[in-house]
Automatic annotation (TrEMBL):
<keyword id="KW-0408">Iron</keyword>
<dbReference type="InterPro" id="IPR012675">
    <property type="entry name" value="Beta-grasp_dom_sf"/>
</dbReference>
<feature type="region of interest" description="Disordered">
    <location>
        <begin position="96"/>
        <end position="120"/>
    </location>
</feature>
<keyword id="KW-0001">2Fe-2S</keyword>
<keyword id="KW-0411">Iron-sulfur</keyword>
<dbReference type="InterPro" id="IPR001041">
    <property type="entry name" value="2Fe-2S_ferredoxin-type"/>
</dbReference>
<dbReference type="InterPro" id="IPR036010">
    <property type="entry name" value="2Fe-2S_ferredoxin-like_sf"/>
</dbReference>
<feature type="domain" description="2Fe-2S ferredoxin-type">
    <location>
        <begin position="2"/>
        <end position="95"/>
    </location>
</feature>
<dbReference type="GO" id="GO:0009055">
    <property type="term" value="F:electron transfer activity"/>
</dbReference>
<dbReference type="Pfam" id="PF00111">
    <property type="entry name" value="Fer2"/>
</dbReference>
<dbReference type="GO" id="GO:0051537">
    <property type="term" value="F:2 iron, 2 sulfur cluster binding"/>
</dbReference>
<dbReference type="InterPro" id="IPR001055">
    <property type="entry name" value="Adrenodoxin-like"/>
</dbReference>
<dbReference type="GO" id="GO:0140647">
    <property type="term" value="P:P450-containing electron transport chain"/>
</dbReference>
<keyword id="KW-0479">Metal-binding</keyword>
<dbReference type="GO" id="GO:0046872">
    <property type="term" value="F:metal ion binding"/>
</dbReference>
<comment type="similarity">
    <text>Belongs to the adrenodoxin/putidaredoxin family.</text>
</comment>
<protein>
    <submittedName>
        <fullName>Rhodocoxin</fullName>
    </submittedName>
</protein>
Length: 120
């Protein structure tokens, strides 16, 4: 079972294959944003990897990061990552202080859109 460490929150055992966005909300109890409901249409679910950044990336995530000019090292979309190995992340997109009324809509248990995988 992978371990997810969220800076200033704690470390949690996460079922293998669970979406990172879901683990951050359900297991870690964070206020991580996900305005589009986890469908790779916005970039509000960004996290910064301290350790354990996956090498593989969905084509949807890769394209959206490029279009939105998100190029900081280690910054990824939590909605496009499955928890397969231990990860250590920093939340950089939270409800607190965002001015939004809520975190975002319901998140499917499956990565959306259906993932086409490539390497970073």
């Amino acid at each position: 079972m992978p371990k997810l460490t969220v800076e200033n929150v704690g470390t949690f055992d996460i079922p293998a294959g669970k979406r990172l966005i879901s683990a951050l909300i359900e297991d870690a109890g964070t206020d991580q944003l996900h305005a589009c409901g986890g469908a790779a249409k916005c970039t509000t679910c960004r996290v910064e990897f301290i350790e354990g950044e996956p090498e593989k990336i969905t084509l949807a995530e890769k394209e959206l990061l490029k279009v939105r000019e998100v190029s900081e090292p280690g910054v990824r979309l939590s909605c496009q990552i499955a928890c397969e190995d231990d990860m250590n992340v920093r939340l950089i997109s939270r409800l607190e202080g965002s001015g939004r009324k809520d975190q975002g809509g319901p998140v499917s248990s499956e990565i959306e859109p259906p993932p086409e995988w490539t390497m970073k």
